[in-house]
Design goal:
5-stranded antiparallel beta sheet; mainly beta; Jelly Rolls; 3-stranded antiparallel beta sheet
Length: 109
């Protein structure tokens, strides 16, 4: 389990190193990440549950957007966002080009 309240399994590659990677993430109910960005684009398929997304540096979980199972989302590199699960577990398949590091909003890039 990560500090953000999710479980992760690396299916391909190593997200901390250059190159392609695929990660399965399971968000547990009631957990959300804080505003952050990633250096590269990420391609995300919602496999189950409802994923909740917000954008911008101000953390406001009450005004997140529901993203249901079956939805495909692109998170563009360097765009600040936050996300997680509210009432039910949510499983995502995330594909990207490493390193897939996370930079907190407001931190130098």
């Amino acid at each position: 389990m990560t500090p953000n309240g999710n479980q992760q399994a690396v299916l391909l590659g190593d997200p901390s190193k250059p190159g392609p990677y695929i990660v399965m993430v399971r968000w547990l109910p009631g957990h959300m990440s804080r505003p952050h960005s990633h250096p590269n684009d990420r391609f995300i398929q919602v496999l189950s549950g409802t994923w909740w997304m917000g954008s911008g540096p101000r953390f406001d979980p009450e005004n997140t957007v529901p993203v249901p199972a079956g939805t495909f989302v692109t998170h563009f590199g360097r765009q600040v966002h936050y996300d997680g699960a509210k009432a039910e577990p949510t499983t995502l398949l995330i594909m990207g080009e490493g390193p897939g590091t996370s930079t907190p909003a407001g931190a130098p890039r």
